[in-house]
Amino acid sequence: MIREFQSNDLDQVMAIWLNQNLFAHPFIDPSFFKNNTDLVRMILPSSEVYVQDIHGIKGFIGLTDNYISGLFIKTEYQRKGLGSSLIERARQVRSELFLNVYTENKAAVKFYQKHGFVQLENRINEETYQPEYFMGCKVDHTIKIGKCAL
């Protein structure tokens, strides 16, 4: 079940955020994520966040306007459609979506491409100095399941 974030979800969501950032980004010094935990904990409750809650939170997606500020699924629940369902939820509430993804995170790049996101720019992340793609899609709301196209 996908539902809106509630304040009592914060600890579970933060644990997923930190663990999955450390797992998916071994090319970034772990202290970067650990040092940003307090900032994310402060910002997250005021963001638009949807959680995948199946007997506990298994993942979440955060939206800031049309920007996907994060999509994280617990490792043991990845490749089971949870990330896809969260992308579909974002498509239901937005007419276009954008995101940044590290180029070295090949699994995430492939996931977003599978869901119709296209590479718009190559960038260097200003905080980590790692190369990333800026990707986006426009949502076609005329079909039952949102489809991205640019």
UniProtKB/TrEMBL annotation:
Alphabetized InterPro entries for the sequence: Acyl_CoA_acyltransferase, GNAT_dom
N-acetyltransferase domain mapped to chain residues: 1-140
Keywords: Acyltransferase, Transferase
GO molecular function annotation: acyltransferase activity, transferring groups other than amino-acyl groups
SUPFAM superfamilies: Acyl-CoA N-acyltransferases (Nat)
Leader sequence residues: none
Name of the protein in question: N-acetyltransferase GCN5
